[in-house]
Structures are given as C-alpha cells and as structure tokens.
Queue: 2 jobs
Job 1
Amino acid sequence: MKRMVNRGCLGLAALLLLAAAVPAQGQARTGWRVEYDEAQGSESVHIRQFLEQSNALDATARWMSYWVSLPRPLTLRTMECATSEVRWVPEEATLQVCYRMLVRLSGLLLVEDSTRAAWAPALNYVLLHGMAHAMVDEMNLPAPNGEERAVDELMALMLVPAGGERGSWVLNGMRTLQRADARWSEWEHARTHQLTPERVETVACLAYGANPPVFPEYRRHGLIPAARAGGCAAAYQRVANGLGRRLEPRMRDRQP
Ligand SMILES: [Zn+2]
C-alpha cells in the first residue's frame, strides 16, 4: 500500500501546481478548510500521511475557495467510516471523505501503469463532486432535473473558468475511473454516482459549449460524440441562464 501511495506522488504534485496558481487573496474568501481525523488500520494511516504531506486536499480546497465564495465556512474532513463514501453532512457543515473510499480509489488506479496517471485527477473529481453537492445545498441552487444532474452542471460551470488543460485533466480522471474497474459499481458511493458515459459527456459537452476554442480536446479525445457536439452551445446557454445566474454573484469570472 505504501509503495502504491508513493507512486501517486507525481500525480498529486499536479494538484499543487493547480493550487499554486491561486493568489493568496483567494484564501480570504469564505471557503473550505481541511481536517484529518485519526486514521485506523495501516492503509488508512498511509493514505492520511500521504495526503497530509502532499497537501493535495488543501490544494483542492484552496482552488475551490478561490473560485466560489460560500455563505459560511465549510470543512472537508477525512475520517474512518463503515462504507466507501464521500458524503455531505449539512448539520456539521462538513464533507466527509472516508479513508475507505480513498484507499479503494488508490487500489483501483495505482496498481497498473495504464491507470496510475489518473489517480490525482480522479481524486480531484471525487472531491469536486462532493463539494458541488455541498454548494447546491448551501446556496439553495435549483435542481429541477435532480441533484446529480445539478452537480454535473455545476462541475461544468467550474471547469469553464479553470481552462481547457485543467478541465481536461479532471474529465479524463472521471473517464478513467469509469473504465478502471467494474468494482466501482459495487461501492456504496456508486449507488447514486454511477459514472456512465452519459455523465462524462454531459459535463464535457457543457464546458465545450461554453467555449469551443478553449476546450477542443474534449472533442479530439472523444469525450463528446460528434452527433452531440452541435447542441453543446445551446445546452450550455440553458445552464448558464439558470444555475449560472444563481452562482454568478459568488463566482470569480477570470483566471488568477
Ligand atoms: Zn453525487
């Protein structure tokens, strides 16, 4: 396990690069902080040490806090749980990230060369997805087609200011996770989070529709089927006019 985690260091360094682009004043906005609960069991202990030393979760929290100002401070807490979950607990203003989930994620992606590079973006996707659930709840954002759909749309809105390279990075993590192993569908978390091709397409299509010149890789890498690409601009406009308008007052609109 320790060896596997060490292999992920290079990938997680990308998270730090991502956060390095966030200026210091980003931290002054109301946002996320990270707390690490005590870990039990050797695998949980290793993954906690690794995440703490790499500052990977702090990097994601800083990045999110930079882009979106929240109504109140929220906590991303790693902890021991009975299931493999990432769950938003509003009464504690906390996104609970179970060590078991992190261990299983590393077990899926760090064992083979073909999937190892996806560890950091897949972790980032899982975290951003959980944070998006918290945002829908905290900001009382509309979810007329269900919360999962609203979360996917929110992810797309976050990828637009992030730019093509970072946006592709997260989406490719999502796609690799989807293809990595059938065991994903057996996890508790997967019961409401099945990573179907349609989900990846929806997020990619919305980001591409927002700015095709910035996201050409989404088409080039086959994230959006040709038949769907023509409707992406209109799909993005619908989301921008709905969810986007609600989010706008709290979101930065340019790169640092
Ligand atoms: Zn979800």
Job 2
Amino acid sequence: MTDHPHSPNQSRRPSSGDAHSASDSQLVEVHSHLARDKEEPREGFSLLPIVVVFVFCGFGFWAGLYLTRNAAGFSSSAFDLNAPREVANDGPKAFEPDLAKGEKLYLQQCASCHQANGLGVPGAFPPLAGSPWVQGNEERIIKIALAGIAGEIEVKGNKYNGNMPNIGAGLKDAQLANIISYVRSAWGNHSDPVMDTKVAEVRKAIGSRGQYSPKEILEQHPLETK
Ligand code: HEC
C-alpha cells in the first residue's frame, strides 16, 4: 500500500526534485496502464447488437401472444374457480336457427324454382308448402338440398320429372340450416328447425356425390305422411 502512487504518504515525502519527478512518471505510467483497456466514452450512441434486438422483439411478440391467449379477457374472476364463467360467452356463439335470415336466403337460392310462396310451378317445380318431403325426418331435405335430386317424383299427388342442382353444396352449414328451418316452418309447414351441426354431419356422411334419385331418397327416408 505504501508504494501506491496515490498514497498520501508518498506526496508528503520530503521532496527532492528527483523524487518528485519519479513519482510523476510513475503516475503517468500507472494511469496509461489503467486507461489502456478502457474505451473512451464517446458521444452519440452505438446500435445494440442486432441479435439482442431480435431476441427482445421475439420476447415481446411471445408476450403479446401469451396475453391474447391466456388473459381470460382480463376478467377479475379468471382465477376464481367458483366464479361463473362469463368468459365462455366470448367464444363463437352457439347456432340458433334464424328464420329471417333463412327466408332471405330462400328467396335468393330456392325461390326462382319453388317460388316465394313455396307453391312451385305446376308441371315444372314441385311445391315445398305442405310437402311431406320437406317435413318429418330432417335428413331427407338436407340431403336433397346438398346433393340435388333428379328423376320422376310425386309430390302431393302430382308427378314431376325435373332436375334440381346441388344448391346446398355451395352454402355454409349455418346458411343451409337457416333456409331449411325456414322452409320447414313457413306456409303452414310445422317441423322442427335444423341445426348447423346436423347439416355438417350429413354433408360429411354423404361426401361429394351426384344427385339423388327420388327412389334412393325414399329408400333411406320413407315419407312419414302422404
Ligand atoms: C333450379 C331450380 C331449383 C332450385 C333453385 C331449387 N330446387 Fe328444389 N327442386 C327442383 C326440382 C325440379 C325438384 C324436383 C326434382 C325431381 O323431379 O326429381 C325439386 C325438389 C325439391 C324437394 C323435394 C320435393 C318437394 O317439393 O318437396 C325439396 C325438399 C326441395 N326441392 C328443396 C329445395 C330447397 C330447400 C332449395 C333451395 C336451397 C331448392 N329446392 C332449390 C328445382 C329446384
């Protein structure tokens, strides 16, 4: 410690000129030693290494993702196991047959043939109003709408021999469910509405296939009423 250039003892040494200059040169040497390995402070800023920037952004992104997935809507009840699950309502809403939407879509998709009043056109397009094909078992009408139907058919005592394309194939499950629910309850028809999940199920079961013949449909789903 006593040798240290900064030590106060040293400066209080009796100062011959020689001793003084020796301690000065010592000082300079030690300082240059100390200064060698240090960078001089510079003005401005240096860019963070790009890797650090990426890691930081990556972390920010992950954090955002984590929050959107797990924030539970920032609900105060998120950690309360006994709280009513209000959060569940944020998910996709359960399907409810919407007859107004169904009517609108019916007018666009079906009415050109079956007519807005569901009575069809004698000799060309069979009626849906009061038709036993429409009512009762829901799979029958779902299949007809999805794949189409062609061949001789008898509806309410009249014979037709037409060709209905696979209109439903181009519609969403919910859209078709709304149309069919409407058709099954309009013009004096009174059958249960149809759910989108049922349409999806039938769509999957029949796959992509050609039109049904009335005979094939009747084998699978005989009419409940004449
Ligand atoms: C391009 C004209 C056309 C369109 C559009 C059309 N159909 Fe048909 N539909 C027919 C014809 C023709 C038949 C009879 C087929 C036959 O002769 O085998 C038929 C038969 C039916 C039947 C069975 C017979 C009956 O009258 O109950 C149902 C049910 C039916 N269609 C529902 C629909 C629904 C629902 C839509 C709309 C999603 C629709 N159709 C769109 C022409 C059409």
